[in-house]
Structures are given as structure tokens and as C-alpha cells.
């Protein structure tokens, strides 16, 4: 060899030994120098994307290389049994042993958990939390799993700032919470938009919590990307996907024991009998019960004639059962990953021999495939059967009978037969069961998604993704009602003879309906993401079109030959009926986003959507909805690091967005007609006639929300303390309401909806968290506060309304009541006051608001409280020590009131608290008024603030205590991990209502109560 070439080769060898790591473009070792083979391969993430810049090192040496832009690498002269270490920021390191034979090593790297927590899901993508500029809050699916509640909507409140929620029923199948993002901002529909895996879909409440990866809430301009459907905020749900690696099976089971949070304790028979006498005496009528009879009601000496019935005990179980099974399989290779799950749940009603229950079966398959370096595919399929079962009588009807059940009458006779009805056959001991028939409501839901991502090889950072979603549901409703038998005591019998009587319908009746809805959505996006030194830019432009169609068919028959044959053909021809309808709906949208940041310090986002909907007339169907947000990470500045070193991270951000709300009845711009129930006779045929239903408004358009947000984010003391706070202001205009209130009734005019309403809504979101480790003890404390209060600025009120009665300037739905200022204790108090004619001691006192020396409708005032809270608080305490873990969630709500007045009197019973502390001539300092009969008294028939309960409360919402069985024991039987736990929901409630649950709906207390859940369960991973 020529000497100068020998010297050059030796120099290259020396340089190669000190260069670390090697570049992927480094000169290869010459074959005559290489004693061992070369290794080459590719590094990808779990979704099949190539990972450039991954460091590949030979363990124990300084030799290494980095993967190129396609994730490829080549490492020369590798000895047998050498260990290759793959390292990349944000991913778990991987070690691979070279066996000396296979020269190709492909690696799939997983993001570590800390990195995953640094991202948040936003509309049509994800963002790093450090670079987000919008008000976006997120909760992990694992947090939602801590709640034993089967309805996801009940697990959000208190965990996410910005959520206002009210749960007004625990009835299986209909036990969800009303959710408002940052409260209510419109006089119309305030429901947020729910997006599941990228597409607006129904059924969020019924999703399996074990399938959910995360839930994000878009609260400000970040929601503008959803245009005319975004004004009420957006809930983004992301389901789990497979991860590379060997198959992993997870199985979960829990068994719950359910009881009402609170049932009203009603007066006993002796007390009620005395109240009945008082009511009759107030009306000048003879009393009904003698002292001896009242004594018999109390001593139980004659349960046939003088019972002491607790109707709730007679009809309601102490404990109801609820259980859930879930199993999932996940795993994959560098070419395909999968997540497959199945689950079932059962939720029983609280009635004895309950006809009420809810059953659900659900399946899901999320598949991801890598076709090659340029094409990735995604296929998702989810199915669910929602099986609701009820008696033909509604829950409201059943609980009305329970509230009105007189304790002086038998719900069940001593021989076990059901007693008489309250009215119309309503004995809740019977009407809560299948003895009166049944109602079955089965809803079959199918959601399918196919998506593809295509990288454009000749433009770095550019790719196209397209998706198609098809959703279908079938609902079959069937209600069969049959007569039932109740028993009354024969008044002429001395041996307690009972007389059976048929109640309810006179002949069996059957109603059936079949509904089908189908939705298809196509979406196409052009994306670009690139880093240029300190500059990062991400952008996309997209097109989306959605079509929804639906059909309904119904039928009715009665006069069945037997109540044992519940099929439509067996009904009589007389009075039979059928009907049907259908609808079609479409949207077309163009939208996009541009995001930019400089050194993750100066941040900017711009969203837009050009939205079209058929709800509005041609020429007014398209609207432009922009959203702009910016942020500044001050803690990255040199002056900050020197001056405030204990604040590790500090960001300020602000946003403005204009969003729409088109959630209004369709075709209001057209004159619409309907058929009359009667018609015109032509010969022997009755021909239906048409009448005009609606006066059209050709100028109708969507509501417009201008949302402003200012926020800060901070982390202090080595990230042990974190704070995120937002102030928001929203002005909703063009709200669709009728102008009828401004038109006198005598005109007879019915006007169409117009875009005339204006509402302001403002408040704060706050979350403060602290976490720390003390040796092996880890704990976290997270507090959330949400305040949102709206104010009507304009909505065309009736003219000449007194200032104190106008709703303008008050909250949406602020009620109009007489102001109650106490109870008359004596005759002198009545005489010395301005009072309603006929007032007497024990009555509620009304204030003379306008000082006109009389009590009339002008003395009613607008009360600036509604049934919806204005503030929600959450406090989460969690801890881990060795194999034990603990989580406690407290949730509170303030600012709400409910109008609740029981339907009591001669018609039915009184709550015990009211009965015991009622005004009587011997108890003149009582807190409750005298006994009354339904709405006979002015202070009952005229709605007033005495019955407007302050429903502020605090709840122990969730409690979860778990133990992870040591792996040294589980692995002996082939189990990776096993956790056993006990948990609970709504275990403790602190409030001033006492009689009813503080989230009870307005009315007479006639509702299916909220539930308290005690739960045991286990999670096993194989």
C-alpha cells in the first residue's frame, strides 16, 4: 500500500475512535478492517412513525450513531452479544442484545408517561401543554375510572375547572348530569358539543370509562375550530389505542351496592291524623279522628283499620345491585397495534320487585397499521346495546304516589295483598313492578371510522390525512300496559274481607315505535409541521361534510284478547293507530389552524372555520368563525431566571374567539304546515286538512358568541406547586327568541323566532395543585374553582313591567316570586301588618315591595338565583405508599336554589321536619307555617321565596382505596399485576336542605332520587 494512503487510513481510524456518536452519514469501516458484521435497522414510534435523531449506542463504549430522517441507522463492526441502547428524549430507553446472526434490528419506542402528560388534546390534534395558548383542561381516563358511577357525565364535575353540572335523577338509564361549560350563555340550548375520536357523536355518557384515554374541555377560542357548534364549549373524548409489545389482557370487575342519597322522612300516622284534624278545623269542618283513634294509629293494636304505614319502606329496597365486567386486549408490532375491549353492566332500580333496570353491552376495536414509510391506516369500530326497562308508570308518577301516601292507609294489607290506590290505580308498591305491564327501550349503536395518513416524501413535514365516519343506531321501544288488581277493605265485613278491584287501563294497550338514525362524515386535511432552528410552525387546512338521516315508525293497539299475548297482531282493530316521520340534515365546513412558537417562549395560534348548515335560508347558511390566541412564557427569559428562580415556569396567555350556535329548530325560514286531527268528509271518507304551524323568518341565522379569555400558568418550587387561572368574558348575541313578550296578548299574533336576545356571561376558572414525595410516600392535592354567572342584557320584555320584576339584568330563568319575610306568630302581628285578606297566625308573611299598602302581583320580585349553581368547587386528595393508593374527591356547589313544595294536605302526607315544627296555637315560635291543604292557602298557591330552598352543598363525591398485590406473588400464577379496591360515590352530603337531596329538581319532590354507591372491585393484568 502507498505510504500516504496508509497514514490517511490510520488517521481516519483514530478520528473514528474519538468521534461520538457517529453520524448516520459517517464513512463506513473498510471490509478489510472490519472483524464483525454491521447492524442496520429502523426506529419508529408506536404509531409506526419514523423517529429521526434517536441515539443508538453500544453499551459500555463511546461508539454510537443517530437515526436519519427516516428513522434508519447503520452501526458497523458490532460484536456478538453486544448490547445496543436506544435513547430519545421523551421516550423510554430500550436495550437490545445482538445475537451475531440477525443483522437487522427494528425498534419501536414508547413515549414515557411524563411525556404523555405534557400533551393536551385540542380540536383536530394535540399540543404541548407548554405551548398551548387556549383555555383547555384535561382529565385522564384513569381518574374517571376511580368513580363507580356508570354514567361518565357524573364523574367530571369537580375534576375539571370550567364544568358546571347538575344531577337531578339517579334512575337507571337516565341518571346523567346536565353539563354546562362555563355555565349558561344563551336563552336557548346550552348543551356543549361532544366530539369522540375526532367526530361529533352522541353517547358520551354511556361510554365505557375503561376505553377512555382522556377527556379535554375547550372553553375559549380553542373551540372556534368547531365553528357554528362551538359557542357552548366542546368536550373532546379520546379512546385508548394499542401500544407495541406483547399482548396484554386487562380484566376489571366491580360489584356495587346502591341506595338513595336521601329519601324524605314523612310524618307518621298519629302526627298526620292530628294534622288532618287541624286542616279541617281551619276550614270550619268537623274533625276526622278522635284522640282514641289517633292513639290506635300509634300503638299498632289494629293494623287493619289503624295502620302506621311508611310508604317508602313498603316500596323501596334498602340496597340495589349494580355490577360491571370489562376486558381488553392490547399490543402490537412495529407494523400494527391494536386495542380491543368488551364490557357489560347491570344497574337495578330501587323499587322492590323492580321493573326498572338498565343493562348495557359494549365492544370496541381500535386498530393502527403501518403500510410503509409513507402510509398509515386507522380503523375503529365500536358498538353498544343500551337496554332500558321500566314499568309503564313514570318515575315521577311513582314518587308522587309515595309522597302523597297517607300513613293512615295501608300500602300492603297485613295478609300481604296490596292496598288501595292513591288515585288512578297508583299504589307504588304495585306500579313500580311488572304487575302493570312493562316498557322496554333498546338502543343499538354502531360507530365506525376509517382513516389514512399519507406522508408526502418530497415535502418534509407535509402529510395528508383523510377519514370517513359512519354512525348508525336502531331504537326499538315497546310499552305494554295491562290492568292490575288492588284491594280495598269491605266496610261491612267483620273478618277483614278484601274486595279486589281492577285498576289502571280498562283493557291491555300496546305502543311500539322503531327509530333509526344514520350519520356519515367525510374529512380531508392537508397538514404541515416543521421546525426551523428556534422556530416551530404547524398548520392545516381541512374540508368536512356531514349528512344525518332518520326515520321513525309507530303503532298502537288496545283491546287485546289476553294480557299474556303482547304482540301487535293480537290487539283489536278498534281505535288502532300508526304513524311515521323522517328527517334529513347536512353540514359542510372548511376550517384550519396555524400555530407558531419561537423557542417555546412566544406562542401564537389562529383557528378558523367557514361553516354551513341547512338550518338557515340560502344565502345565509355560511358563516366565518375565527379564533386567535397568544402566549408568552416569561420564565424562559433571562431576566426571569435571575430575578424569580423559585418560579420554574410562568406563562401568560390571552384569546378571543367568535363562535356560533345553530342548535335551533330547523326550517324556521319556511312556512310550515301540519295536518289537523279532524278534516272534511267527501262521501264516506274523512280527508285531513292542513293548517299553518309557523310564521317564517327569512332572516334567521345563528347565535354569535364573542369569547374573551385571559389566563396564567405557573409552576413553583421545583414543580411542587402549580397554578392555572383564567378569567373569561362572553357576550352572546343574535339569540333566537320570539318577540311575543313585547306584543300584547289581545293582538292574537304569534311571531316567529328572531335573532334579538343578548346575554353576558363571565367568571373564573382556577386549579391549584401540590405534589410531593416523602421517602416512599407520594401525595397530591388538587383544588379547582369555577365561577360562571350570566346576565340577560336584552330579550324583548313586555312593556310597562316594574323595574324590580324585569328579567333584563338578571340571570337566565331567574324566577318571579313574592318575598317571604317570616311567619305570623300572633293575631297582633297580622293586624299590625299589610297582609292578604284572610291572613291568620301561622301564615307566611309577604313583603309589600312597592309600598302601596296592599299585597298583589306587583309585590313579586325577580330573584337572582336559579336551579343551576354559579360556583363549583373540587378538592382531590390522593396518596400512594408502597402498594397502597388512596383518592378522595370532594365537590361543592353554591349559588343555586330550587323551588320545592310538597303536594301535602288532605291529599297526602307531609315531610316529618315540616310536620314536627309547624305552627300551632301551642307552638307559635315554629319555623314552618301551619298545616295546609294543597294550594288552598294564598301562601301556597302564590309562589314565594319561603319555598325557594338554598341548595348549596358539599359532597364526598368519590372515595377510592386500593391495594396492589405484590408482583412477587402475582407472577407465580402468570399475572402481571392485580389491584383490589373499595370505592364509593356520593357517600356524604353536607347541606341545609335535609329533607331532599340538594340537587333535587324543582317541583313537589316527586322524582327518582340520586344514588349513593358502595363498591368493591379488582383489576387484573395478564
Automatic annotation (TrEMBL):
- What are the GO BP annotations of this UniProt entry? siderophore transmembrane transport
Residues annotated as domain TonB-dependent receptor plug: 131-234
What is the topology of this protein in the membrane according to its UniProt annotation? Multi-pass membrane protein
Q: Sorted alphabetically, which keywords does the UniProt record give?
A: Cell outer membrane, Membrane, Signal, Transmembrane, Transmembrane beta strand, Transport
Q: Which SUPFAM superfamilies match?
A: Carboxypeptidase regulatory domain-like, Porins
Gene Ontology MF, one: siderophore uptake transmembrane transporter activity
Give yes or no: UniProt keyword Signal.
yes
Q: Which Pfam families match?
A: CarbopepD_reg_2 (PF13715), Plug (PF07715)
The record's Gene Ontology cellular component field reads: cell outer membrane
Where does this protein reside within or beyond the cell? Cell outer membrane
The leader peptide range reads 1-25
Q: What is its main location?
A: membrane
Task: Quote the PROSITE patterns the UniProt record gives.
Answer: TONB_DEPENDENT_REC_3 (PS52016)
Q: Name the family.
A: Belongs to the TonB-dependent receptor family.
Entries under PANTHER family matching the protein: HEMOGLOBIN AND HEMOGLOBIN-HAPTOGLOBIN-BINDING PROTEIN 1-RELATED, TONB-DEPENDENT OUTER MEMBRANE RECEPTOR
UniProt protein name? TonB-linked SusC/RagA family outer membrane protein
Q: Which organism is it from?
A: Chitinophaga dinghuensis
What lineage does UniProt assign to this protein's organism?
A: Bacteria, Pseudomonadati, Bacteroidota, Chitinophagia, Chitinophagales
Amino acid at each position: 500500500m502507498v505510504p500516504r494512503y496508509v497514514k490517511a487510513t490510520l488517521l481516519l481510524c483514530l478520528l473514528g475512535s474519538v468521534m461520538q456518536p457517529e453520524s448516520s452519514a459517517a464513512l463506513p469501516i473498510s471490509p478489510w478492517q472490519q472483524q464483525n458484521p454491521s447492524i442496520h435497522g429502523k426506529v419508529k414510534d408506536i404509531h409506526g412513525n419514523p423517529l429521526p435523531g434517536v441515539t443508538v449506542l453500544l453499551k459500555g463504549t463511546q461508539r454510537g450513531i443517530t437515526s436519519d430522517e427516516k428513522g434508519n441507522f447503520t452501526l458497523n463492526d458490532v460484536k456478538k452479544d453486544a448490547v445496543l441502547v436506544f435513547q430519545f428524549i421523551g421516550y423510554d430507553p430500550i436495550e437490545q442484545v445482538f445475537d451475531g446472526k440477525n443483522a437487522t434490528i427494528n425498534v419501536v419506542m414508547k413515549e414515557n408517561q411524563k411525556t404523555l402528560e405534557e400533551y393536551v388534546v385540542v380540536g383536530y390534534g394535540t399540543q404541548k401543554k407548554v405551548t398551548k395558548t387556549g383555555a383547555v383542561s384535561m382529565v385522564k381516563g384513569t381518574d374517571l375510572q376511580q368513580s363507580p358511577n356508570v354514567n361518565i357525565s357524573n364523574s367530571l364535575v369537580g375534576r375539571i375547572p370550567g364544568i358546571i353540572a347538575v344531577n337531578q335523577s339517579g334512575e337507571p338509564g337516565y341518571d346523567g348530569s346536565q353539563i354546562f361549560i362555563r355555565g349558561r350563555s344563551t336563552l336557548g340550548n346550552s348543551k356543549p358539543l361532544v366530539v369522540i375520536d375526532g367526530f361529533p357523536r352522541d353517547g358520551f355518557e354511556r361510554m365505557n370509562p375503561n376505553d377512555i384515554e382522556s377527556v379535554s374541555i375547550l372553553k375559549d377560542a380553542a373551540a372556534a375550530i368547531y365553528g357554528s357548534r362551538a359557542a357552548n364549549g366542546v368536550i373532546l373524548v379520546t379512546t385508548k389505542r394499542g401500544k407495541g409489545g406483547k399482548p396484554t389482557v386487562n380484566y376489571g370487575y366491580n360489584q356495587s351496592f346502591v341506595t338513595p342519597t336521601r329519601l324524605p322522612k314523612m310524618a307518621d300516622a298519629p302526627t298526620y291524623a292530628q294534622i288532618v284534624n287541624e286542616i279541617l278545623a281551619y276550614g270550619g269542618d268537623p274533625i276526622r279522628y278522635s284522640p282514641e283513634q289517633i292513639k290506635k294509629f300509634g300503638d299498632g293494636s289494629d293494623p287493619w283499620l289503624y295502620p302506621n304505614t311508611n310508604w317508602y319502606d313498603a316500596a323501596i329496597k334498602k340496597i340495589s345491585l349494580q355490577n360491571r365486567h370489562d376486558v381488553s386486549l392490547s399490543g402490537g408490532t412495529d407494523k400494527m397495534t391494536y386495542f380491543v375491549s368488551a364490557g357489560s353492566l347491570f344497574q337495578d332500580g330501587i323499587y322492590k320487585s323492580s321493573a326498572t333496570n338498565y343493562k348495557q353491552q359494549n365492544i370496541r376495536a381500535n386498530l393502527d397499521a403501518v403500510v410503509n414509510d409513507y402510509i398509515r391506516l386507522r380503523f375503529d369500530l365500536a358498538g353498544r346495546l343500551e337496554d332500558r326497562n321500566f314499568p309503564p308508570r313514570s318515575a315521577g308518577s311513582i314518587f308522587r304516589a309515595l309522597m302523597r301516601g297517607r300513613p293512615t292507609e295501608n300500602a300492603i294489607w297485613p295478609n300481604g295483598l296490596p292496598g288501595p290506590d292513591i288515585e288512578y290505580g297508583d299504589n307504588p308498591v304495585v306500579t313500580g313492578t311488572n304487575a302493570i305491564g312493562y316498557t322496554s327501550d333498546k338502543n343499538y349503536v354502531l360507530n365506525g371510522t376509517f382513516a389514512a395518513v399519507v406522508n408526502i416524501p418530497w415535502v418534509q413535514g407535509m402529510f395528508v390525512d383523510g377519514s370517513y365516519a359512519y354512525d348508525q343506531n336502531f331504537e326499538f321501544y315497546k310499552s305494554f300496559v295491562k290492568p292490575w288488581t288492588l284491594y280495598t277493605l269491605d266496610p261491612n265485613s267483620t273478618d277483614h274481607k278484601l274486595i279486589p278491584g281492577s285498576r289502571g287501563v280498562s283493557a291491555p294497550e300496546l305502543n311500539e315505535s322503531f327509530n333509526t338514525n344514520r350519520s356519515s362524515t367525510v374529512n380531508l386535511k392537508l397538514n404541515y409541521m416543521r421546525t426551523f432552528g428556534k422556530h416551530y410552525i404547524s398548520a392545516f387546512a381541512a374540508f368536512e361534510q356531514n349528512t344525518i338521516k332518520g326515520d321513525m315508525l309507530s303503532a298502537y293497539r288496545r283491546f287485546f284478547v289476553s294480557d299474556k299475548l303482547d304482540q301487535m297482531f293480537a290487539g283489536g282493530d278498534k281505535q288502532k293507530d300508526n304513524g311515521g316521520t323522517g328527517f334529513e340534515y347536512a353540514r359542510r365546513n372548511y376550517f384550519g389552524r396555524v400555530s407558531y412558537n419561537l423557542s417555546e417562549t412566544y406562542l401564537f395560534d389562529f383557528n378558523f372555520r367557514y361553516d354551513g348548515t341547512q338550518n338557515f335560508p340560502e344565502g345565509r347558511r355560511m358563516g366565518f368563525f375565527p379564533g386567535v390566541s397568544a402566549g408568552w412564557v416569561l420564565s424562559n427569559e433571562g431576566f426571569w431566571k435571575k430575578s424569580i428562580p423559585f418560579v420554574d415556569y410562568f406563562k401568560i396567555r390571552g384569546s378571543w374567539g367568535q363562535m356560533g350556535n345553530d342548535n335551533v329548530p330547523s326550517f324556521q325560514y319556511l312556512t310550515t304546515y301540519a295536518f289537523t286531527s279532524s278534516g272534511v268528509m267527501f262521501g264516506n271518507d274523512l280527508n285531513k286538512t292542513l293548517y299553518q304551524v309557523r310564521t317564517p323568518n327569512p332572516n334567521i341565522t345563528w347565535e354569535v358568541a364573542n369569547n374573551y379569555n385571559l389566563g396564567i400558568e405557573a409552576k413553583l418550587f421545583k414543580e411542587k406547586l402549580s397554578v392555572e387561572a383564567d378569567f373569561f368574558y362572553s357576550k352572546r348575541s343574535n339569540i333566537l327568541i320570539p318577540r311575543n313578550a313585547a306584543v300584547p296578548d289581545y293582538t292574537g299574533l304569534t311571531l316567529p323566532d328572531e335573532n334579538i336576545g343578548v346575554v353576558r356571561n363571565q367568571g373564573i376558572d382556577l386549579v391549584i395543585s401540590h405534589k410531593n414525595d416523602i421517602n416512599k410516600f407520594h401525595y397530591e392535592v388538587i383544588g379547582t374553582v369555577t365561577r360562571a354567572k350570566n346576565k340577560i342584557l336584552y330579550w324583548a320584555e313586555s312593556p310597562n313591567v316594574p323595574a324590580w320584576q324585569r328579567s333584563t339584568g338578571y340571570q337566565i330563568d331567574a324566577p318571579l316570586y313574592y318575598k317571604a319575610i317570616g311567619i305570623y306568630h300572633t293575631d297582633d302581628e297580622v293586624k299590625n301588618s299589610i297582609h292578604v285578606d284572610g291572613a291568620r297566625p301561622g301564615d307566611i308573611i309577604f313583603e309589600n315591595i312597592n309600598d302601596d299598602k296592599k299585597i298583589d302581583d306587583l309585590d313579586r320580585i325577580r330573584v337572582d338565583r336559579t336551579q343551576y349553581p354559579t360556583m363549583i368547587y373540587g378538592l382531590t386528595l390522593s396518596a400512594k405508599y408502597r402498594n397502597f393508593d388512596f383518592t378522595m374527591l370532594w365537590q361543592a356547589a353554591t349559588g343555586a336554589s330550587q323551588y320545592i313544595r310538597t303536594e301535602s294536605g288532605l291529599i297526602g302526607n307531609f315531610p316529618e321536619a315540616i310536620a314536627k315544627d309547624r305552627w300551632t296555637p301551642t307552638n307559635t315560635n315554629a319555623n314552618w307555617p301551619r298545616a295546609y291543604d294543597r294550594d288552598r292557602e294564598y301562601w301556597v298557591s302564590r309562589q314565594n321565596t319561603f319555598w325557594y330552598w338554598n341548595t348549596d352543598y358539599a359532597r364526598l363525591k368519590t372515595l377510592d382505596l386500593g391495594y396492589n398485590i405484590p408482583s412477587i406473588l402475582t407472577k407465580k400464577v402468570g399475572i402481571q399485576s392485580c389491584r383490589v379496591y373499595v370505592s364509593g360515590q356520593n357517600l356524604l352530603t353536607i347541606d341545609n336542605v335535609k329533607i331532599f337531596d340538594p340537587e333535587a329538581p324543582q317541583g313537589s319532590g316527586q322524582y327518582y332520587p340520586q344514588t349513593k354507591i358502595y363498591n368493591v372491585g379488582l383489576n387484573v393484568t395478564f
